[in-house]
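Lab manual, section 2.4: Encoding a predicted structure.

Procedure: take the sequence of the chain (311 residues), apply the prediction step described in section 2.3, and record the output as structure tokens. A sample record is shown.
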Amino acid sequence: MFSARDEYHLINKELAALVRDLPDSPLGEILSYVLSAPGKRVRPLILILSAEALGTPPAQSISAALAIELVHAASLVHDDILDHGIERRGSPSALERFGPEASLLAGDWLISRSIDLISGYSQPVIKAFSRACMDMSEGELMDLSCAGSPEDYYQCITRKTASLFSASAKIGGLISGAGEEDVARLESYGLHLGLGYQVLDDLEEFLGLDQGKSSQKTSVTLPKIYASRSSRSASHDTDSDAGFDADSDIGSDTANVVQMCIKVTDDHCNQAKGALQALNGDEEKKLQLLEIVDEMTCRGLQRCRSQKSLC
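Recorded output:
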């Protein structure tokens, strides 16, 4: 668990209050099921801590943080509809329990409520929030089209996953009235954290590690792209695909694919940390934001390295 316990408990307290105010209806039941699911609340935590790092108390950013969490919850519900998701966070998905029509409407409600929560902030905050929502939708469509290259994959996950991490940190800076350089540093921190997290998540799925989720549809991910190119390279004794760096030679076994994905994750984590270390802000809150990078990656990387040794 993160050391930012006060912020974490505040987010859960406000989510619980939101759940208590839900309509006493079938839709309210679905929403309660979705919002009561356990979670690390990483994205709203990033927003609140980013604002705190620049001198703004949580009371001024909590509504924006809840908006981020609700739109994230909506994206998971819609993602399960698109991917025929069966399990989410160790429990049956909303799709599995309530069906596609009800789940779709629940996701729509969550997005609408998130707009209500963000509407009290400045135009730049609203614009950053709406841009992330649009990017997520575009990323979902890219995911459905099946990436065929690392470049396609990165365009997809930048929009589908990293955009909300990036917006969370950026919005925290905007709420605090930070200068352009510090807002850009926070945005870069969130972007690279989101990219590193997604590559690691896809690597864990590739290795068959339990993630508490499952779906009938599988996406084309970076490990699969690397493995496919490795297989073709072994078959043809050459790899002439465009877009590969000279230092990105893929071996013919899974261990090399794992090692490449670990390196990519490490690189993004280091870039996230570098952007944050340059931030002109409160050192304690910066350390808590750095801790999120480690928490979101280190444990998973350790599991993947252990699995690699078995390959």
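Check your result against the sample. Confidence is low (pLDDT under 50) at residues 238-252.
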